[in-house]
Amino acid sequence: MQYVLFVILFTLAHVFSYTIAGAVALKFSKNLYEEKERVCDFMRDMADDAERSHVEKWFLPAQFLRGPLMAVILLPLFSAVTDLSFFIAVLFFGGLMFIYTHLSSVSPFIDNIEGQVYFKKSYLRKDYFWKFQYEMLMYSVLFGFLMAAAVTWIM
After folding, report:
1. 8 in helix, strand or coil?
2. With a threshold of 0.85, does the pTM exceed it?
3. Residue 142: domain span
4. Residue 66: exposure state from Cβ atoms within 10 A (0-12, 13-18, ≥19)
5. Residues 104-119 pLDDT 10s
6. In sequence order, what are the residues at sequence separation of 6 or more whose Cβ sits closer than 8 angstroms to the Cβ of residue 88?
7. What is the domain count for the chain?
8. Helix (H) and strand (E) counts for the chain?
9. Is 80 a residue whose pLDDT tops 90?
10. Which domain of life is it from (predicted)?
11. Taking a C-beta distance cutoff of 8 angstroms, is the pair 78, 68 a contact?
């Protein structure tokens, strides 16, 4: 039962953190996601009603799929994770998300290590890089705190 609870809480922490961080970041990162001259012109344009509608339709289902996938892979570490102090659990879960799902991800993007290797120079600007870092740090810190609270509560 503890495993099931861990997967559920992990998923909820992910969905909540990802949604909040994305909503806050969009307020200062519109040039990344909206309009014809947006930085991420290979992504759906949030200013276009049809494209935004697609994102709105699939955003939550995608996160509710990602959450359990990420949680299940951690189940072999469950005992070790639940033995961590609150502060170390914040660092572990926050660092896990920031490093594994973002900075060191094998899928290249303009704000991670692989992206610095594969993206064209026109996409690799410091201001773009730091806007994404802020969003991912916000997500990772919030997620880290929520998961530290969750594993403390589970035990």
Report:
1. helix
2. yes
3. 2-154
4. middle
5. 999 999 899 999 999 9
6. none
7. 1
8. 7, 0
9. yes
10. Bacteria
11. no
